[in-house]
Specification:
The protein is of the alpha/beta class. The chain has 14 helices and twelve strands.
Length: about 300
Amino acid sequence: MSRDLNVKHLEYFLEVVRLGSINKAAQALFISQPYLGKIIHDLEDGFGHLLFNRNNQGVTLTPEGEEFAKWANHILEEVGSLWHGSEEREDDWRHLAVSMTKFSHVMESFIEIVMRHRDERTFSHRLYEGSPDEVVEDVFAGRATVGVFHFDRQRREEVEKLLSAKRLAYRHLGFLEPHAVLSKNHPLVRSGRPITLRALSAYGVIRYLGQYDDLVSSLFGSEITRQQEDGKVIYLSNRESLLRLISVSDFYSIGIHNFELQDCHYQDVSIPIVDCNFTFEFGYVYVKGTHLSRITQEFLKDIEKRLN
């Protein structure tokens, strides 16, 4: 009975687990089905138990297979730590590489941590901004060590499946209710009335360009389509431009609670939308098995504090 263990074969095994089919996994891995079938057979032979139940619909894990899958994930994470651990620990305070969606709370955390460690002898920090899809891709491609993003909490299962397919670990940061971001001189603010979706629909909305996960559309449904047809939408790609435009107009955008610079620099305010059933989920992703440096962990703790 063979006891040889190939790390790549463990990755192949987990791909079969994810897709529930040896045939689909072989296609995804660009290898032949007979070759993948032999690898699974060799793993079962070495482990001494059947790992999968086979049927016409595909494969499912046996109880022994479920235990083997836990060990396979653990082994791959440990192997990842061997590759990345030593070099990152040497530079624990020198390199912070972050990708984020356009929320100023995350930006402020980045600034806080960078300034806190500005007296280090050497450092090289990076910050990328984009849509949730782009954040995930930045981490998957290695441009960023960690990615902070948001999505509709009802899409949690869908998001986790996507990240699992890319072998990215996900950690929850918090649930937050959407707020309307308005000028302190906005008519709705001066009136003192509750902010509702219906009241907001009378005003122009500012949206970020290129957001596949358009949370404004999720909030307003067909109402935002009517606004677009009436020409009451402005698209921007820059956070500072958005906040500046809000401060001098009766336009609004969608965000979360206030952040430090919002009031003192722009005289903008965030107010809860009282009749909204939508909830943001914030979280972060990183490559499974990657050692998160001390500066990265400090950054994540600061974000969690700001969000909650």
